[in-house]
Amino acid sequence: MRNDALTGQLDSLILATIAQQPGHGYAIVQRLAQPGGGRFALAEGTVYPALHRLEREGLLHSSWSADSDRPRRVYSVTGNGRSVFQARRRDWKRFSGAVQAGLG
Amino acid sequence: MSWLQTLAAELSARGLPGRDRRRILLELQDHIECEPGCEERLGDPRELAASFADELATARTRRGALRAFAALALAAVVLAISQLAIGAAGGYRGYSTGISMWLFFPALIGMLIAPQVALVAGSLAALRAVRRRRVAGLPAAEIDLIGRRARLALLAGIATVAGLGLYLVNFSNRFPGWYMGLIGCLSVVSGATLVVAYRGMTDARSIVSRMPGSAGDVYDDLPLLGRRWLRRRPWRLGVIGVLTVGAIVTVFFAHAESSVQEGLERGIVEALAAALGFLLFGRTVGLIPSRAAQPALAAPARLAGDHDRALAEHILRDGYAAGQLTLDQLSARLSAVHAAATVGELREALRGLHD
To answer: Which of A80, B2, B151, B248 sits between 20 and 30 A of B239, alpha carbons compared?
Structure first.
C-alpha cells in the first residue's frame, strides 16, 4: 500500500495499537506492521515523532521502564486518548462504509 | 559515522534541547538493539531529525504564543487595577508634581502606547496559534511570524509594567503606602511572568525548522479583511486602521470631555501614534508582507528534487491565495511543476511570482 494512503491515519493506528496494550517503541512498530500484513511500507522511524506528538497532545502517556536492562520508554493511552480514538474509529467506519457503498 | 551518530549530529544541528535529544537517542538506540541491522527500515536519520525539529518548533512556538497571551492578560489586569484603585488613592496627580519629568514621560509612553502594541501583536500571535492548532508542523516562516508577534507583544508588555513602575516611583511622595505596595507587588509579579514567557519564546526559537511554505499574513488571520484591493496595497490597511482608531478616540473623548476640540486633539495624537506603530511594527507582526525573500531555487541547470518541487508548489498556492493566479492557471502551473526535471523548468512555472 502506498505511504501517502497512511497520511492522517498513522496517529489513529498508533492509538489503536497502544490502546490494546501499552508498549515501547520497537514493540509498537512491530504490532503496527501486523494488521497490514506488511502492506504498509512505513519508514519505522516516522512512528517516533508521532509518539512524541501524541504525548504532547495529551493522548499518550510515557515513562521510563525499570523492567529492562537498558532505558526503555513505555507508552500507554490516556483517558482523553481513549475517547479520541473511539471518536476517530467511529468516523473512519462511517467514512469507509460510504466509500465501500460508492465503489459497489 | 553510524546511523545513531548521524541522528545525534542532526538533532544537535537542529537545536533540539538536550533533554529531548537524549530521550530520542535512547529510544532509537533501544529500537536498534532490539533488532540489530534494522537502521535502514528506520529511514533517513536526517529526515527523522527534521521531523522532530519541525514538530517541536511548531509545538513550542504555539504554546509560547498562548502563554505570552496569558501573561499579557495578567499585565492588563494589573494595569486596570492600578487605574481603578487610583481614585481611592487620591486620584491622578498633576504631571509636574512628581519627582522628575524624565520619569513621567517614559512612564506615560509605557502605560499608554506599549499596551496597544502588546494588544495587537499578542492577539495576532494567539489568534494564529489557535487557528493552526491542529497542524503538526508549520512552515518555518510561519513559526517565525508567530514568534516575532509574541516576542514583540511581550517586550511591549514588559515596557507597560516598567512604565507603571516608573509612574509609581515618580509619584512615590504623593501616593499612600497601601497603593504603592499593592501596585508595586502586582507589577513585580506581572513583570516576572512576562519575562518567563519571553524566555520560553527565545527557547522555542533555538529549534531550527526548515519546512518550506509561506508565513501567511494578517488577512489569513482575519479573513474579513481579505479583500483583494487591500491585500495588494498594505498601506491602505494602515490608512484605514489609523483613521478608524483616530475617529473612535475623537468621538470617545469629545463625548467624555464634552469638548470637540479636546476629542480632536486626542484623536489626532492617537492616530499619529497608530501610524507610527504601523510603520515601525507592521512588518514584524505581518500587517505588511515581509521583505524577506522566499527561499530561492538554486541554479537553473541543477536537477529538481522533491524539496524544490514542494517549494515551488507552496509559491504557486500562495500566488493563488493572493489572487495572482486563477484556478486554471494554478492547475496548469502545478502540472508543469510536477513534470519539471530541472530547476530552470521550475522557475519557468513560477514566472511572475518568484525572483
So the answer is: B151
A3 touches chain B (CB under 8 A): no
CA angle A27, A32, A34 (to 5 degrees): 100
Does residue B330 carry a pLDDT above 60? yes
Q: Is the minimum CB–CB distance between A26 and chain B shorter than 8 Å?
A: yes
Size of interface A-B (CB pairs under 8 A): 58
**Are the Cβ atoms of A49 and B48 closer than 8 angstroms?**
yes
A25, A44, A72 ranked by CB distance to B43: nearest: A44
Amino acid at residue number B285: V
Query: Which residues have a Cβ under 8 Å from the Cβ of B341 and sit 6 or more positions away?
Result: B303, B304
pLDDT at B193 over 60: yes
What's the pLDDT score for residue B312? Answer: 80
* From A26, A45, A49, residue closest to B30, measured CB to CB: A26
Q: What pLDDT, in 10s, does the model give residues A29-83?
A: 998 887 555 556 677 888 999 999 999 999 999 999 877 788 899 999 999 999 9
Dihedral pair phi/psi, residue B175, rounded to 5° = -90, 150
CB count, 10 Å around CB of B287? 22
Give the number of other CB atoms < 10 A from CB of residue B322.
17
Enumerate long-range contacts of B126-132, CB under 8 Å, 24 or more apart.
B126/B65, B126/B66, B126/B68, B126/B69, B127/B221, B127/B222, B128/B65, B128/B216, B128/B220, B128/B221, B129/B61, B129/B62, B129/B63, B129/B65, B129/B66, B130/B66, B131/B220, B131/B221, B132/B62
**Which of chain A's residues have a Cβ under 8 Å away from the Cβ of B28?**
25, 45, 48
Cα–Cα distances in Å, from A21 out to A24, A74, A89, B152? 10, 11, 17, 46
Q: Which segments of B257-282 does DSSP mark as H helices, in order?
A: 260-281
- Contact by Cβ (8 Å): A28, A47: yes
Taking contacts as CB-CB distances below 8 angstroms, the residues of chain A near B6 are: none
pLDDT digits (tens, 9 = 90+) for A66-80: 777 888 999 999 999
Kindly state the cell numbers that stand for A2. 502506498
H/E segment holding residue A61: strand A60-64
The C-alpha atoms of residue B40 and residue A23 are separated, in whole angstroms, by 22
SS3 A75: strand
Q: Comparing B156-160, B186-190, B278-282, B345-349, which segment has the lowest mean pLDDT?
A: B345-349
**Residue B245 CB neighbour total at 10 angstroms:** 19
How many other CB atoms sit within 10 Å of the CB of residue A45?
Answer: 24
Q: Are A14 and A32 in contact (CB under 8 A)?
A: yes
Mean pLDDT of B42-48: 91
